[in-house]
Design a protein that fits this description.
Structural class: mainly alpha
Radius of gyration: 31 Å
Order of helices and strands: HHHHHHHHH
Shape: flat
Largest sheet: none
Number of domains: 3
Amino acid sequence: MTNRDASPPAPPATRRAGVALRSSGAAAKGVLVAAALVALALVLGGAVLWAARRPLEQPIAFNHALHVGQLEMDCTDCHLYAVNGVRATIPNIEVCADCHDEAASESAEETRLVEYVASGERVPWRKIYRVPEHVYFSHRRHTQLGGIECETCHGAVGEQVEPVGRPLVRLSMEHCMRCHQDSGVSNDCLLCHR
């Protein structure tokens, strides 16, 4: 092989350009990977938010309007400790059995409830309202001592024909603080935060 057959060495600028081209290719791949990760995060975040906004399905299509409106029952007929306890409780077969040890109608939902009562199996109601663990909340303090009606925090549940699948009132610290302020109650942090 002679020197004539060999290609002359590339000038330094061309070698640097080749490195720059390879570097920009790697950078482009990095940008694509980053964009894909951001898109994935947005999709997953959207799915979580969508799922959180979907109403919870209850095991029985309980009709509050029938019980409160037509039968003229009070919230505390079923939610036993709403007035004199810290927790209001979600009623279960012990409470339901008072009226539903046998079916009083042709309702398929009532039949399902009677089956739960007869079998002694608890109805797996899904809890709608949650108070964060670091917050102390007493129903008694608000209903019995404060004279607050259930609807103030829970909304018009008594008018609901379909089961409640999400809170009718968005409870938040701001909501509570506004109510405390409007009622002339202290907003001291230690009153609610433990």
